[in-house]
């Protein structure tokens, strides 16, 4: 009887873990957490990502030109009610857009929403431990448009980070 319960418990735990592994989890994106400064951008331009907790990661993005913030974005990486991971963008005070995960792992995560006007795809690629390349892409007026945002890892709160 004891062996049967132990086998049942082990089998149940295995099946639960197999189901968890079927969908990419938020922990697979822990490499994104931290502070990233835009390469070639003004101080304060870049992204900050909180580490995964509670099936979410939260991020902020800011673009500074001539000493003024010209764009900002609040971002979420979240496990949705259906168990799938999604990138949710809240750009410059506009309505949120959900981009379900297309591919998630290390060193790349890709999210896609073909119904959105632009972009239809958001991607992050880690290049070693100190570089990150964010990319948005999609069709605009019948032409594929790709915009890349190269970043370098910086200490949070540093001058390059813009948080003095």
Key words describing this protein structure:
disordered N terminus; 164 residues; Lipocalin; mainly beta; ten-stranded antiparallel beta barrel
Mind sketching the topology for me?
Elements: H1 2-22, E1 34-38, E2 46-49, E3 56-65, E4 68-79, E5 85-91, E6 97-104, E7 108-112, E8 121-127, E9 131-140, E10 143-154
Antiparallel strand pairs: 1-2, 1-10, 2-3, 3-4, 4-5, 5-6, 6-7, 7-8, 8-9, 9-10
Overview of this protein structure:
- By secondary structure, this protein is mainly β.
- It has one domain (2-154): Lipocalin, CATH 2.40.128.20.
- The protein has one helix at residues 2-22, and strands spanning 34-38, 46-49, 56-65, 68-79, 85-91, 97-104, 108-112, 121-127, 131-140, 143-154.
- It has a 10-stranded antiparallel β-barrel.
- Strand 5 (85-91) and strand 6 (97-104) form a beta hairpin.
Summarize it.
The chain has 164 residues and is mainly beta. 13% of the residues lie in helices and 49% in strands.
CATH topology: Lipocalin
The unreliable regions are 1-22
What gross morphology would you assign? Answer: globular
What's the tally of helices? Answer: 1
Order of helices and strands: HEEEEEEEEEE
Strand content: over 45%
**Sheet with most strands:** 10 strands, antiparallel, barrel
- Write the CATH homologous superfamily: Calycin beta-barrel core domain
Main sheet: strand order: 1-2-3-4-5-6-7-8-9-10
Task: Give average pLDDT, whole number.
Answer: 87
**Fraction of residues in H or I helices:** 10-25%
Number of strands: 10
Question: What gyration radius follows from the Cα positions, in whole Å?
Answer: 19 Å
* CATH class identity: Mainly Beta
Please identify the structural class as seen in this structure: mainly beta
How many domain regions?
Answer: 1
């Amino acid at each position: 009887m004891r062996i049967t319960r132990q086998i049942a418990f082990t089998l149940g735990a295995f099946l639960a873990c197999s189901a968890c592994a079927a969908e990419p989890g938020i922990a697979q994106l822990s490499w994104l957490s931290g502070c990233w400064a835009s390469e070639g951008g003004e101080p304060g331009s870049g992204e900050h990502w909180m580490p995964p907790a509670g099936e979410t990661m939260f991020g902020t993005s800011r673009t500074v030109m001539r000493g003024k913030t010209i764009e900002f974005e609040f971002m979420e990486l979240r496990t949705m009610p259906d168990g799938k991971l999604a990138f949710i963008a809240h750009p410059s005070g506009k309505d949120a857009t959900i981009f379900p995960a297309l591919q998630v792992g290390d060193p790349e995560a890709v999210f896609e929403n073909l119904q959105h006007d632009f972009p239809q795809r958001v991607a992050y690629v880690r290049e070693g431990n100190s570089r990150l390349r964010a990319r948005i892409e999609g069709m605009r007026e019948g032409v594929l448009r790709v915009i890349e945002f190269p970043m370098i890892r910086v200490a949070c709160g540093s001058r390059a980070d813009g948080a003095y």
